[in-house]
Amino acid sequence: EAQVTQNPRYLITVTGKKLTVTCSQNMNHEYMSWYRQDPGLGLRQIYYSMNVEVTDKGDVPEGYKVSRKEKRNFPLILESPSPNQTSLYFCASSFSRDRHEQFFGPGTRLTVL
Amino acid sequence: AQRVTQPEKLLSVFKGAPVELKCNYSYSGSPELFWYVQYSRQRLQLLLRHISRESIKGFTADLNKGETSFHLKKPFAQEEDSAMYYCALNSGSARQLTFGSGTQLTVLP
């Protein structure tokens, strides 16, 4: 089944403890992206990647890192999480040639205490 | 810079009533507009795109360049339409999509 998977789905952590949220897609998509969803603010892009080893900042990159060593994986790294990073995170992917439809993962709900 | 505005955070209508979810955009070039939907406990998914000029689940949306709007409409709302709806703009940049803040639609029985 073609899909985008994220792990973990739920995570409660404490301030300053490094964490990684994984994202994987099996559709051979070149483009991948991370968003955070907050009430009243909608979806805001954190980072995106046009292809392997090509990443760039979105609207709200502060406090996050990403890497794209393989085409299928695009992990989101929080080196020192803070409470303002408590949010619902979505990974998405698409073919670069078709910029219309992005396929979204199920979301990761992160709470930073 | 591109911007998408959805003025209504919450919208409630009764079953069978018409519904319109508003979306306005700001972009100087030729935009591509989309509506994404997120049903309860499901992932975000594409509902429709303006270039297709299609009707999906009874919803339509017309791009009005003069008013810079892309409102989503349905003549007779159903309870299963209750969801969060996001309007999104693709300006052709590498960043792909800019989303609005979303409208939570509730269709009452």
Considering the chains and any ligands shown, give keywords for the structure.
heterodimer; A: 113 residues; mainly beta; four-stranded antiparallel beta sheet; globular; B: 109 residues; Immunoglobulin-like; six-stranded mixed beta sheet; three-stranded antiparallel beta sheet; 11 strands
Q: If you had to describe this structure to a student in words, what would you say it looks like?
A:
The complex is a heterodimer of chains A (113) and B (109). Chain A has no helices and eleven strands. Chain A is an all-beta fold and 113 residues long. In chain A, the strands form two sheets. In chain A, strands 2, 4, 5, 6, 9, 10 and 11 form a seven-stranded mixed sheet that branches. Chain A has a four-stranded antiparallel sheet with strand order 1-3-8-7, with no helix packed on it. Chain A is globular and about 35 Å long. Chain B is mainly β and 109 residues long. Chain B has a single domain, classed as Immunoglobulin-like. Helix content of chain B is 0%, strand content 44%. The model of chain B has no long low-confidence stretch (mean pLDDT 90). Classes of the chains: A mainly beta (113), B mainly beta (109).
Chain-wise SSE layout:
The complex is a heterodimer of chains A (113) and B (109).
Chain A: E1 4-7, E2 10-13, E3 19-25, E4 31-38, E5 42-51, E6 54-57, E7 65-66, E8 76-78, E9 87-94, E10 103-104, E11 108-112
Parallel strand pairs in A: 2-11
Antiparallel strand pairs in A: 1-3, 3-8, 4-5, 4-9, 5-6, 7-8, 9-10, 9-11
Chain B: E1 3-5, E2 10-14, E3 19-21, E4 24-26, E5 32-38, E6 45-49, E7 60-61, E8 72-74, E9 83-90, E10 97-99, E11 103-108
Parallel strand pairs in B: 2-11
Antiparallel strand pairs in B: 1-4, 3-8, 5-6, 5-9, 7-8, 9-10, 9-11
